[in-house]
Amino acid sequence: MAVSTAVAVVGAAESDLGATGKSILHLQAQAVTRALADAGLCLADVDGLATAGASRFSAAQVAEYLGIEPAWTDSTFAGGSAFEMYVARAAQAIGAGQCSTVLISHGSDQRSARSRSLAGAAETHTPQAQFETPYGPLFPLSHYAMAAQRYLHVHGARREHLAEIAVAAREWALRNPAAFRYGAGPLTVDEVLAAPMVSSPLTAADCCLVTDGGGAIVLTSLERARDLRPDPVVVLGYGESTTNAGMAAPDDLLRPGSIGSGRRAFAMAGLGPGDVDVAEVYDSFTITVLMTLEGLGFCGPGEAAGFVGGGRIRPGGAFPLNTNGGGLSYCHPGMYGLLLLVEAVRQLRGECGDRQVPGAEVALAHGTGGVFSTHATVLLGVDR
């Protein structure tokens, strides 16, 4: 059996979210113990660990804190896409017999620490910084704003099309009691446009939250997963692409690496964009979503602005997107990619209450890291 069809997610959980006052390792431990309880396992069952965010030696630090000695680890730092990449590495490691039970975890105290800094990031010391820093860009916001400005210019789109992403995310968040903006009331396009301009054309409402939080998922072989719980979520396919470190390098700002990562994931799964019932797409900024949807093949270049309109991506629409409220209204603890996977798993299990997508059988989770630098796509499905 191919590796991609022999591995499943058996546990998924988030830590406390928002402004918690808890440390990174405390949040990691919360998410980990909750995910293991969800799977019916304990720390002694874990022999594989993939994690990022604690330090440059995240795997060693988290393993020590949890009191485990894993036979396999990964702490690749790739920003928000790292956790989708970890799914691929974990599936390969389990398939190769290096380990049997892999824990993927993340935690961040960014809001409590009043900082957007990511452990291990060195954005001011990279070679390309000499060409970009003199212009005073806000990292990473101004880089995404450049892509947004180019998108509006080339495709004749308007800021209202960007705003629709934030408005839809808020509607989903109002159905998610764990969301940071739960209870805040609906958001309107006019409010997004009127929010303080941060880096043109992106306002504060076009930008993700800054919160504490974390998450964890547990993977094992599908055969074992079926003994652990009645509804394992199968890893169907995965793909990734790394394109650039800075924004001075890309030949075309509107050609995201999601083109390659999505193509590889769909090919492995034997599926296409039309087979996806629910999509969880990294929404660091509103432009991230538009360009990722096009890269993944849900619509053509320049078509995402129209694709997301008419309520299509809002609750009850034809294309359920970022159903927990996303990084724009649910939470964004520095690197959000793991929580995309948590929500995808919950949707496929039918555990999402008021925001549940009826009959969801295939879910896509796509992470984006850096400044449109790293891209990773994972396809998950119910066990048939």
TrEMBL record:
Pfam families in the cross-refs: Thiolase_C_1
Domain Thiolase C-terminal: 239-381
Domain of life: Bacteria
InterPro entries in the cross-refs: Thiolase, Thiolase-like, Thiolase_C_2
Listed GO MF terms: acyltransferase activity, transferring groups other than amino-acyl groups
Name recorded for this polypeptide: Thiolase
Organism: Planobispora longispora
